[in-house]
Specification:
Elements: H1 2-28, H2 39-65, H3 72-99, H4 108-121, H5 128-151, H6 162-172
Helix pairs in contact: 2-3, 2-4, 2-5, 3-6
Length: about 180
């Protein structure tokens, strides 16, 4: 008897998971209107997407700039930064898969623009201080975009800020940046 009830409960859980996943996929594909999904889910998805985008862009910028760096201390800092970004993106991907979210990676055009910008900013000066300055500018841009998304979330709606807070901690913990 308990086995039948357990199977029934398992079937119900699977059905609920499938419904949630299907609803979110429809939102991502714009097949249903925002009114058909809760505002909290949309805000959560937007925040998760922004954190994911910032972390992956951080990883990509480290990959581009790392070969230019000669200073061992700065290389070590970038290695730790890259690993922090990578660990966070893996956590976000796991959470998104669990919730049925489909995260979108940066487009080829975005990657090309970042690469071109890094090369232009370092064309005449590839000193450690210049490379660190370029990385700090990128970190500041990440902080600004994250704060904008967080400020657009309705304070009455409960949204999990765990990943946003983790990214902010990563960005603030880098040497040369003062924590507010």
């Amino acid at each position: 008897m308990a086995e039948v009830q357990q199977k029934k409960q398992q079937s119900q859980n699977e059905l609920n998971e499938n419904l949630q996943s299907t609803r979110l996929k429809k939102v991502l594909d714009e097949e249903i209107t925002p009114e058909e999904i809760s505002a909290g889910e949309l805000d959560q998805l937007e925040l998760l997407q922004e954190v994911y985008k910032s972390a992956t862009q951080g990883m990509q910028s480290v990959e581009v700039i790392r070969p230019m760096i000669k200073d061992k201390a700065l290389k070590s800092i970038l290695f730790r930064q890259y690993n922090s970004y990578k660990a966070l993106t893996k956590e976000i991907e796991l959470q998104a898969a669990t919730n049925g979210y489909d995260l979108r990676a940066s487009t080829f055009l975005n990657k090309a623009m970042m690469y071109g910008s890094l090369l232009l900013n370092t064309i005449t000066d590839r000193s450690s201080s210049k490379l660190a300055e370029v990385m700090i500018q990128g970190i500041n841009m990440g902080i600004i975009s994250l704060v904008k998304v967080k400020n657009n979330i309705d304070p009455d709606i409960k949204v999990d800020m765990t990943f946003a807070d983790k990214l902010m901690d990563i960005l603030r913990s880098l040497p040369g940046l003062a924590s507010p």
